[in-house]
């Protein structure tokens, strides 16, 4: 493992503050949101759909601690962009949004250095205030939205309303123990890790925070290389992985093949009480990887450890680590 102390260049103006929210493009937004509420302790936060004037897409927004997930589906037949995404990837993370200060400056800086701007900075507003948004292309079909909230007082974003329905069953469930998004992992194809890391360094002025190579991170059969990039304040961490040779196909290669290219592999959510978070009957009702359950029984966590619960997408992770990994939340095979 290699840690880095050089934070590199700092933006003259503006900054990346934290993860704002993650948007999943899914086949059935209502059911996906309900799953995260009943299994993971999230609560409905906001909604947009036909009833609120959104004619093309429906979104159910859920929240726990500072974690916000948006589940979005197409409303009409023939939505080529969302349909193609679903055919290619299945349900998956489409966008990783950052809360930012000075959206205009950050976008201009990224543009100067070659980033593709999918949506120019634009203001959306309602009676609760104004928010400036911009969207940039990153690895695979994944995007980053910059969110400059500037005192916005609404539930989530302009255009979103209070949930129309709150499942009474949720009141019977214990409250969740998850606090904030610790990191969001992007899996890349072979030899794509360094170019993507350089994309973050060049365009967003992120820096290398931590890295491991295949000699340091391998099981008996599967190996990977990983470089974690972070914003200057190190409040946003994005591990970027690529496959490495092992006795069997790397878990990263397997992910890339099943997902149809680069994409978000897992989301780590911080909790101050990992034992309660995954223990019955108070904790999460989800499948925890058997390996992690064994580790949990064997391991007395040091007090200084800041535990994270890792939410897997598409792949059974076999990393040997103190954090607890759920089994796949999204199966396409
Ligand atoms: Fe992780």
From TrEMBL:
Q: What residue ranges carry the coiled-coil annotation?
A: none
Annotated VOC domain ranges read: 18-149, 180-327
Q: Which reaction does it catalyse?
A: 3-(4-hydroxyphenyl)pyruvate + O2 = homogentisate + CO2
Superkingdom field:
Eukaryota
- Please give the biological process terms from Gene Ontology that the record holds: L-phenylalanine catabolic process; L-tyrosine catabolic process
* A GO molecular function held by the record: protein homodimerization activity
Pathway(s) of this molecule: Amino-acid degradation; L-phenylalanine degradation; acetoacetate and fumarate from L-phenylalanine: step 3/6
| Names of the cofactor(s) | Fe cation
- Indicate where this protein resides in the cell: Cytoplasm; Endoplasmic reticulum membrane; Golgi apparatus membrane
Query: PROSITE patterns of this UniProt entry?
Result: VOC
**GO CC terms on record?**
endoplasmic reticulum membrane; Golgi membrane
Q: How does it sit in the membrane?
A: Peripheral membrane protein
Keywords, sorted A to Z: Acetylation, Cytoplasm, Dioxygenase, Endoplasmic reticulum, Golgi apparatus, Iron, Membrane, Metal-binding, Oxidoreductase, Phenylalanine catabolism, Phosphoprotein, Repeat, Tyrosine catabolism
Its quaternary organisation is: Homodimer.
Q: Which purpose does this protein serve, as stated in its record?
A: Catalyzes the conversion of 4-hydroxyphenylpyruvic acid to homogentisic acid, one of the steps in tyrosine catabolism.
Question: What family, per the record?
Answer: Belongs to the 4HPPD family.
Q: What is this protein called?
A: 4-hydroxyphenylpyruvate dioxygenase
Q: Which organism is it from?
A: Cyprinus carpio carpio
